[in-house]
Amino acid sequence: MAREWIIFALSFGLGGHIALGLVLHNPSPARWQEMGWNIFFIGLFVYVAVQAGRSIYLALRSYGTKRD
Asked: Using one digit for the tens of pLDDT, what is the confidence trace for 9-24?
């Protein structure tokens, strides 16, 4: 359970860094106002991508052990 929370926190932290990078490359007041939502949605996307990657990895790994 702790591993899931760690992945969740790291994903949202990475999402925050990505959103900050986007804002700093185009600094306009509208971008700063939308930054909170950008952090949320980008962090959520990163989390879903990591979980999908883990699922695919586990499926491939279990498929390989069943064939042996």
From this structure: 999 999 889 988 988 8
